Amino acid sequence: SEDRHTELRPPAPPRGQPRSRNSSVNGRISADDFEFGRVLGEGSYSTVMLARHKSTGREYAIKVLDKGHLKRNNKLATALAEKNTLVRLGAEHPGIVHLYWTFQDEWSLFFVLDLARNGELQSRIFRLGSLSTECTRYYTAQIIDALDYMHSKGVIHRDLKPENLLLDDNYRLKLTDFGTGKVLNSEVDRAKTWVGTAQYISPELLEVSESSKASDIWALGCILYQMIAGRFAFHGLSEYLTWQKIKQLDYSFPDGFDEQAKDLVQKLLVRDPTQRLGAGLPGSPNDMQALRSHPFFTGIDWKALWSTPAPPLE
Ligand code: ADE
């Protein structure tokens, strides 16, 4: 219900002071309902913490955003946008981190999220150097399935990267960090500002500051390249030099790069956003269905994607 996401309660007493033993006196969820554990991740405006819901024993990841810091940096709207995006995405897709509740106290905003216990895909790629073709196929398929769902709900992520791809208990993928997400009002809508991370920014974002579903598809191409090659597709010594490479489509494949993956990357990293595989309108030759049908995905059972066991991470 709408109400779950608009929880508001009186300021909590400072830490260390006794709090009400029964935090549900006002019928609303609050920080008192959780036992906070270790820090799972830190962003510029937020800290994600492990938290156990006391009455059910269930574990969650709680994103804590500092209100003062958000205000001082004019980021309150960003936090609100993230919440609205997550609410819009709902709980229907297994590949997207679900928002259970939000609440706040005097100092912080709290987002109670799905816990992805096995951390970021980024650190796996880092530790392993690169991923096997089998793993890459599996995770790329899961990203595509989650993107397809997200885009069908009119949401673009705009900062898709391996740090925002988390692994759950079963080593299945969960997309997170919708702080840069954008809700489109219609199919033709474009978002006019750019946000994101240098290595995954598409040429149209650099040149005309326009993002669309196709910009997420570009990022997918960069991630697929990175999983197999173990390095960025576009990487310069500075952000400026990285952007030059992106605009010139200046990248190359290392020896031994899987041929079908290579073909797919070449169909994703296309300068014209409308020509990227998966970016076309449904029914067009480069729609999501065409992307799913690419030979790289031979053997992927799209219908059982979220129930087939993950291949060993290697
Ligand atoms: N780090 C950031 N978000 C997380 C989440 N939802 N689960 C686990 N670790 C995280």
Percent in strands = 5-15%
Quaternary: single chain
Strand tally is 9
- What order do the strands of the largest sheet run in, or round the barrel if closed? 1-2-3-5-4
**Biggest β-sheet description:** 5 strands, antiparallel
- Mean pLDDT equals 87
Report Rg: 20 Å
Helix content: 25-40%
Order of helices and strands: EEEHHEEHHEEEEHHHHH
Attached small molecules: adenine
- The rough form would be described as globular
Q: Give the number of helices.
A: 9
**How far apart are the first and last residues' alpha carbons, in Å?**
41 Å
**Would you tell me the structural class of the helices and strands?**
alpha+beta
Domain Protein kinase: 34-297
Keywords: ATP-binding, Kinase, Nucleotide-binding, Serine/threonine-protein kinase, Transferase
Family: Belongs to the protein kinase superfamily. AGC Ser/Thr protein kinase family. PDPK1 subfamily.
Organism: Phlebiopsis gigantea (strain 11061_1 CR5-6)
How is this structure best summarized?
This protein has a five-stranded antiparallel beta sheet with strand order 1-2-3-5-4. Strands 6-9 form a two-stranded antiparallel ribbon.
How would you characterize the overall build of this protein?
- Helix content is 30%, strand content 15%.
- The protein has nine helices and nine strands.
- Strands 1-2-3-5-4 form a five-stranded antiparallel sheet. The protein has a two-stranded antiparallel ribbon with strand order 6-9.
- Strand 1 (34-42) and strand 2 form a beta hairpin.
- The chain starts with 33 loop residues before the first strand and ends in a 22-residue tail after the last helix.
- The structure holds adenine.
- Adenine is lined by residues 40-41, 48, 61, 97, 113-116, 166, 176.
